[in-house]
Structures are given as structure tokens and as C-alpha cells.
Design goal:
Length: 84
């Protein structure tokens, strides 16, 4: 494996992390907007249950985003060390 193929592989990992982070941002925004729309229409038991589930989805997506962001930082730091 050459240095350029390692750099290419690292860049692909970083791009994958970026795609995942964008997806999680969309999930968080979509869930938040859905909660707002549902509670505007009703505050019934079903809406409360779905709102709670969406809230947990937001928390899970935020935690996953944080983990992937930390992984991406580790990759970028390693890439910076390789380029020296």
C-alpha cells in the first residue's frame, strides 16, 4: 500500500463521516420539525408517545454524531501526521 493510496483511503473515510454527519443533521431537524407540527395539531396520548420517541431519536442521533465527529478528528489528526 503506497502513501497515496493510504491518503485516498483516509479521504474516503473522512467523506463517509461527513455524509453520516449530514444525514444525522437531517434526522435531527426532521424529528424536531415533526414534534413541533404534531404538538401544534394535538396534544393527545399518541402525539405525546410519538414525541417522546422522536426526542429519543434526536438524542441518539446527537450521540452518534458526536462519536463520528470524534472519529473524524482522529482520522484528520493522523492524516496531518502522515503529511509531515
Amino acid at each position: 500500500m503506497t502513501a497515496s493510496s493510504t491518503d485516498l483511503e483516509t479521504q474516503e473515510r473522512i467523506q463517509s463521516c461527513q455524509r453520516f454527519l449530514r444525514l444525522m443533521t437531517g434526522v435531527i431537524l426532521g424529528a424536531f420539525a415533526t414534534i413541533i407540527l404534531m404538538t401544534t395539531v394535538s396534544t393527545g396520548e399518541l402525539v405525546q408517545t410519538l414525541g417522546r420517541l422522536l426526542y429519543y431519536l434526536i438524542v441518539l442521533a446527537a450521540l452518534c454524531s458526536l462519536a463520528v465527529w470524534m472519529y473524524r478528528l482522529k482520522i484528520e489528526k493522523h492524516l496531518g501526521q502522515l503529511q509531515r
